[in-house]
Amino acid sequence: MSKHPHQPGSGHAGGRAGPRDPFPRQANPSWMGRVEPEYYRPAPGTNAAALPPLGPLPASLAGRMAVRRSTGLLALTVGGAALVFLSLFLVVPFLLANTGVGGFMVGFVLSLIPLSAVLLAVYLIDRWEPEPKRLLLFAFTWGAAVSIAVTLLIQPFFALTFQFSDVADFRTFMATVQAPVVEEFAKSLGLLLILLLARKHFDGPVDGVVFAFTIAGGFAFTENILYFGRAIAESANPGTDLAQVFLLRGVMSPFAHAIFTGTTGLIMGFASRRWHSGASVLAFVIGLIPAMLLHNRWNSMAAEFLAEYILIQVPIFVLAVVGIILLRVAENRLTRQRLMEYSAAGWFSPAEVELLATPRGRRTALQWAAGYNRRPEMKAFLHSATRLAFTRQRILSGRDVRLHQLEEQQQLQRILALRGAVAG
């Protein structure tokens, strides 16, 4: 890996592309994150290695940049911690009242097994461009505590609003109507907060799936404590009943909630490309529909459970896996194309782009760096290059261009510093 950029390129940092700026045929390498020709502009050339300022910042822009850097994440961190703390005063007593101390402890331990499967999936999906750990922590705790508390607070209104002649009809209604509506709303509300307050880290459908899976994993974790613990506390044959419940929830459906809420995250992720609060809220509302329908379909399986599981739920799971793989492939292609544009401007060589923007290249780069005890530096370099590609994508979206160009300048400076650290 070369220590310095190769030949300088040319580029400008204006708003929209000028009339002479060509629109490369390969600018849209996949269906994800398409760029309109009128918004395209070349990457800044390496003659801007010193990265001179773009000019005096308007007070409004400087204020927006400061707000964007601190307020959103601070609000999620502090507000989220406060909500989690308050929610635990409702959630923990509810769990203990239904499971007892012994059932709670057993349920807690067993719930870690399906949770591990979901979090492993999140890790694998999120490896390309990892999200900040505190955002993932917010997502998990929102699902495990806040969304449970919201569900417990809203549930009684459903019970009071509708009158039923017998207990069976009431239970069916609560499982097939109340649970899908209330639980998906409570979980997805956390997604909406992340998108509105930390939109810098919500770049597209893959991020939407990552945050949705994390929230859903937290929700399912707490719900599993309830079901596993109650199987012990309320059963005459706790061992048999617990095994049956664990088989259903821990083995056959650890990703059920993740797939439900993942559809909302997917739709909200596509909306995040527009960088518009109104579109985000609209996507939240629209995204709830498939999540609620999938949840309803799952809870409606009864007498023909095994047949419906094999014929409906398994294909849905397979479709979800295939969809995530396609999203990752499209994201990889988009990253490679944006870095190739920086390569054309002189920041990277084509060989470096192959190392930075392909799974095989990244493995090769990390193995090489490990031989020189520079693996952490190389890992930071890879992640910074990916973030740079995503920043360029936001620039080419045509929204908040000046703000994103400032971020681009800072990231290019970091790229130069990390290049030196990697090269030694």
What is the radius of gyration computed over CA atoms, rounded to a whole number of angstroms? 24 Å
Shape: elongated
Spans where pLDDT lies below 50 across 5 or more residues: 1-20, 48-59
The overall number of domains is 2
Summarize this entry quickly.
The protein is mainly alpha-helical and 424 residues long. It has two domains: 69-300, no CATH class; 310-424, no CATH class. The protein contains twelve helices and no strands.
Question: What does this molecule look like?
Answer:
There is one protein chain. The chain is mainly alpha-helical. Helix content is 75%, strand content 0%. The chain folds into two domains: 69-300, no CATH class; 310-424, no CATH class. The protein contains twelve helices and no strands. The longest helix has 68 residues, at 59-126.
Write the layout of secondary structure elements.
Layout: H1 59-126, H2 133-161, H3 167-197, H4 205-233, H5 238-251, H6 256-272, H7 277-299, H8 305-344, H9 350-357, H10 359-371, H11 375-396, H12 401-423
